[in-house]
Design brief:
mainly alpha, 15 helices, about 0% strand, disordered C terminus
Length: about 375
């Protein structure tokens, strides 16, 4: 946990927020046909991969065809989840007025109902990013991922819970909306979840019926192989989404905050919290596309409603702004960020790792003097 108010002076925060607002406005003003063409091309690629993948599973008796089919279907599900579903449901393309790209109408190819996710993720997570007891994505209600979370013997299983969550990640995200931990503490009743549960049952029923009943039956005697192929594609998507999301939120040096220190925060302070509470993952163009550009989690937390394809374009400028104000810009390759997450999960499973970490001291740079001279 960090002393958020100690990072920058009030004047620095104001200037910092103004620079990021200007950057955002430049991008918004520049949005146009290229952005629409990009997402449409990704949608076409996703659909083609699904058709090819499901088609190859009809020849699943031939091992290379089965493997290729599972690979194509896995890529299709990853694109649908990460670069299309996540980003469209964030409202990144609402400005197009295209009903097919409407954040309020779009549904993705996994068991989590879009309406539930839009509340728990778009609103709760992106409004209260890394605020303890407000952002329920901290630990997803089952993990100890921050030292300020009070230790309980239950957390001895921290690494095992995380591994299990990775394998069934789409189901974990769906059940996350039940807020089961709050039901246990009496803060919430099962009856409060009536509508949430109804949406879960409908959506999960459709997904299970499609992947594990309809398409296997369509392949006749190959139904068991098709069932296995669909399960493998879903598993691949789960492991990938878990890795990208956890590496963007929980590596070493990603910070958390209290409700008190974020009370009545300004726009600049909100931006500051997003940068301190996020981490990027370095990689190539294909890697960024398959991550939904959540490999640029810092830029995504700053501007969640800007098309994600723009994040690599502005990452250098965001990093330069961070350097100007002496702020960290947490980034690194997937293996390093994932290793840090694993280390944290193991460390925080133990009771003697319970004290909140000390905040890093800000750089001793007189930014007010520099701003006055600029």
């Amino acid at each position: 946990m960090t002393g958020l108010q100690d990072r920058l002076t009030p004047r620095q925060v104001e200037e910092f927020g103004r620079e990021l607002d200007e950057l955002r406005q430049r991008v918004v003003t520049d949005l146009g046909a290229e952005d629409v063409d990009y997402i449409q091309d990704v949608i076409k690629a996703q659909r083609a991969l699904e058709v090819v993948g499901r088609g190859l599973l009809f020849a699943g008796f031939f091992p290379p065809a089965w493997i290729a089919g599972v690979g194509a279907l896995s890529l299709s599900k990853i694109l649908d989840n990460m670069e299309i579903g996540h980003n469209v449901m964030h409202g990144q393309y609402d400005w197009t007025r295209d009903p097919a790209l409407s954040s309020n109408k779009f549904e993705w190819d996994n068991v989590t109902p879009g309406e539930n996710w839009r509340h728990s993720h778009n609103y709760m997570h992106h409004t209260y990013t890394n605020i303890l007891d407000k952002d329920r994505d901290i630990g997803y209600g089952i993990l100890r991922i921050d030292p300020a979370q009070k230790w309980h013997p239950y957390y001895l299983g921290n690494p095992a819970y995380a591994l299990a969550l990775a394998f069934v990640f789409q189901w974990g995200v769906m059940l996350h909306d039940l807020e089961f931990d709050r039901i246990v503490t009496g803060e919430r009743k099962w009856s409060d979840n009536k509508d949430v549960i109804a949406r879960m049952v409908r959506k999960a029923g459709r997904q299970v019926g499609k992947d594990y009943v309809l398409f296997p039956l369509l392949t006749g005697p190959l139904a068991p192989l098709t069932f296995l192929g669909n399960a493998t594609a879903n598993l691949t998507r789960n492991l990938w989404a878990f890795s990208i999301i956890f590496c963007g939120h929980f590596p070493a040096d990603v910070e958390s905050f209290t409700e008190e220190e974020t009370e009545n925060e300004s726009r600049g302070q909100w931006y500051l919290r997003q940068i301190l509470g996020s981490a990027n993952i370095s990689g190539g163009t294909l890697f960024h596309v398959l991550s939904g550009n959540l490999s640029h989690q810092i830029e995504h937390h700053l501007f969640p409603d800007i098309p994600a394809r723009r994040y690599p374009q502005i990452a250098g400028e965001v990093r330069a702004i961070c350097e100007k104000y002496g702020l960290p810009y947490n980034t690194g390759p997937l293996h390093r960020q994932l290793g840090q997450v694993a280390k944290k999960l193991i460390k925080l499973a133990l009771p003697w790792n319970g004290a909140p970490r000390e905040p890093k001291a800000p750089r001793t740079v007189d930014r007010d003097r520099q701003l006055s001279a600029a």
